[in-house]
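Field: COMPLEX_INPUT
Field: COMPONENT_COUNT = two
Field: RESIDUE_TOTAL = 568
Field: MODE = joint
Values follow.
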Amino acid sequence: MARATSTQRKLGTTLLAWAVGLLIFFPIYWTILTSFKTEAQAISDPPVFLFFDWTLENYSIVQERSDYMRFLWNSVIIAGGSTLLGILIAVPAAWSMAFVPSKRTKDILLWMLSTKMLPAVGVLYPISLIFVEFNLLDTRIGLVIVLMLINLPIIVWMLYTYFREIPGEILEAARMDGASLGKEILYVLTPMAVPGIASTILLNIILAWNEAFWTLNLTAANAAPLTAFIASYSSPEGLFFAKLSAASTMAIAPILILGWFSQKQLVRGLTFGAVK
Amino acid sequence: MATKASRSAARVMMAPAVVLLLGWMLVPLTMTLFFSFKKYLPLRGDSLERGLDWVGFDNYIRFVSSSSFWPSVQTTLIMVGGVLVITVVLGILLAMLLDQPFWGQGIVRILVIAPFFVMPTVSALVWKNMFMDPVNGILAHLWRFFGAEPVLWLSDASLASIILIVSWQWLPFATLILLTAIQSLDSEQLEAAEMDGAPPQKRFWFIILPHLSRAITIVILIQTIFLLSIFAEIFVTTGGAFGTRTLTYLIFQRVVDSQNIGLGSAGGVYAIILANIVAIFLMRIVGKNLDA
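Field: COMPLEX_OUTPUT
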């Protein structure tokens, strides 16, 4: 039985919801807006909201002075690389756990999850020592490996929950028809698994892009991604609001866009399938 | 039917992930444990090549008896507790609001979720400078507008300020999960209660809240694990000063700033034990879900 909601009530809810939504979004809106102001307008009191001379100057200054593109490129390589590497390792594992489950499957899954709970600071020194030993400090490949490892449990879990929803009978039917294991994976499983794999990739790029413990502690000049680049603004340089805003806007824009696409998968991925 | 061949194939396919994670867990953990029983101060000439002195449980005792330990535990508890209370309470209210029919649902949802995608260093710095700066920050403008003296947020109300920043980042997460849970609530049950004359408060306490309890537990557990290791937000705002030194940050300082590896490692072991206590509860819930 449907309940008719009065237009008046809907209007009230609309106003309240929009007010709350805009309030929560305000810091991001303000950052984006300030990035188009001059430094003087950025700190003017009362603040200017719309009527100021819009300028792109901050963006070019940030790029010129700090070589922003290099940090961006590092972020892209580290987030993308660690995700792809993780997917390559996780797909076979999740596939076998979903379709050839054994008594130990559940224990293995839970154990994998438990490695995610290891507090990073507890193993900071050992990891830096290993990095020094293998010349990985301040290299992109080093961060690709570490971020792949910290996100691998989430990747396996997400893929597992997606794969488990693929009906096993279809695979059996393919097997009856004489399809080999390779053909079964390539022609039957892959097309059905693509959406799940895509959302897993999306969520993990977001997580890796925003990771801010290892990226801050294991990089210096060469491999530093955007998280570290922005952290350098914690010095007095951060007081140049317009430039800080321009740098911040560039650092978060790609992920805001990706994030909006992945809203639904976010819940499943971050709760390890416990809430869908 | 799983044949013998497919079973062994499955084992081979699982091997890389299992071996990597096993190594990732065991190698650093063993090293941390090893260092925690050693005197290891690289700046004072201790080195692995020359061998480290075994000091038994000295580091463990010194870590907890140092004057910064209990304050850091207190700070950690206040920070994690504060963020949990704020995000869960506001998250429930927000989820119930967003579940109502209104115009522009999709856009408002996006606005609310957005902070979750902002990298921690950006949100910390934007809040620190553009909002909490005592001279030019928006909040200072606002305070002056109402004739009040601007607050020195990050030195006079430092812990509260960081709780505010972190809550802003995690509110979307709590809201999104609770909203997903609310949407799975059977609306007929609510309507039946309404027709039986149950007032809104009663409907909330006896139908909505019990339905949400599992999702709330999950939000609390997952957030606790992430919040216990909050780092960047403190690193770029106060650097652990003004009473914002959490257990994680204290360990970080012991290892990186004072280069006392033995002491820091003992602290690390405490942090690992603490995180695992929380993790056990989370795993129980997630594990139950696997059987279903």
